[in-house]
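Hi support team,

I've been running sequence recovery on a batch of backbones for a student project. Most finish fine, but this one hangs at about 90% for roughly twenty minutes before it completes. I'm not sure whether the input is malformed or the queue is just slow. I've pasted the structure tokens below so you can try to reproduce it. Let me know if you need the job ID as well.

Thanks,
M.K.
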């Protein structure tokens, strides 16, 4: 059964690969013998991330600049990879703009729905949702034409439930000044699950499997009060460790999940049970 987790010779592209979790997704591919293409809109960050992982593992890691909101940029990367490898075996749609819970010194909470700007809405949906659509359209068609492939959309526990805005509250602020998780995060993460189900049925007869991974919050030195509030919402009583999703990513992009498509795998310490 362990052979099914082997990615030897398989080529996969990770969007937003220079980010915190993007690098971990890339590590999962390397450790299973695959060939990762770490893409990011920041070319320097993509190359640095690839260099770091190349040095760490002594394996081939490719860093490329790709703007997931640009069809032309994606097609240029596709053409380059086709020339080099003649195939793409899997795509991990990971790119996103980190939706900040924000406010200013005057108490205006720009993340609140009433204040949230059209510009922020357009930019964040363009990266998190349109980007997944375009990459799936361009790389997914390659897979469908080849008769096999996997698309993995990185969603969230907040693609299943709504944010509990109480964990972001600040003492001394009026209700209309309280910071909240922005609406875009929920819309994007719910939307990725909808895209997953659509594509899973659309390409089921072409050998392309499509699943979503719904992640809980990852501990990354957040403020203690926030960590405590969030941990109180999680039955396991803690946030995820940075490496705890790698095995799930490998499972979903490998033949170990060969009879799984259109699913949203939730790994959140039990948060969505409550």
């Amino acid at each position: 059964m362990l052979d099914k987790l082997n990615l030897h010779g398989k080529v996969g592209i990770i969007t937003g690969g220079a980010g915190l979790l993007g690098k971990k997704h890339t590590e999962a591919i390397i450790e299973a013998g695959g060939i990762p293409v770490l893409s990011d809109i920041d070319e320097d960050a993509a190359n640095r991330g690839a260099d770091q992982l190349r040095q760490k593992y002594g394996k081939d890691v490719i860093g490329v600049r790709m703007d997931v909101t640009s069809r032309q940029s994606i097609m240029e990367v596709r053409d380059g990879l086709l020339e080099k490898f003649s195939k793409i075996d899997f795509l991990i749609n990971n790119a996103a703009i980190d939706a900040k819970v924000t406010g200013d010194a005057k108490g205006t909470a720009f993340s609140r729905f009433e204040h949230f700007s059209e510009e922020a809405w357009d930019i964040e949906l363009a990266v998190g949702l349109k980007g997944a659509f375009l990459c799936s359209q361009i790389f997914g068609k390659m897979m469908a034409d080849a008769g096999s492939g996997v698309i993995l959309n990185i969603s969230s526990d907040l693609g299943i439930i709504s944010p509990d805005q109480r964990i972001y509250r600040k003492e001394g602020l009026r209700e209309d000044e309280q910071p909240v998780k922005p609406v875009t995060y929920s819309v994007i993460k719910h939307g990725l699950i909808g895209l997953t189900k659509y594509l899973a049925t659309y390409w089921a007869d072409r050998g392309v499997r499509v699943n979503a991974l719904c992640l809980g919050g990852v501990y990354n030195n957040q403020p203690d009060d926030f960590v405590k509030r969030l941990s109180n919402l999680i039955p396991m009583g803690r946030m995820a460790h940075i490496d705890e999703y790698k095995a799930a990513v490998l499972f979903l992009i490998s033949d170990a999940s060969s009879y799984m498509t259109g699913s949203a795998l939730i790994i959140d310490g039990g948060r969505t049970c409550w």
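--
Follow-up from support: It reproduced on our side and the slowdown came from queue contention, not your input. Residues 165 and 180 are 6 Å apart (CA to CA). No action needed from you.
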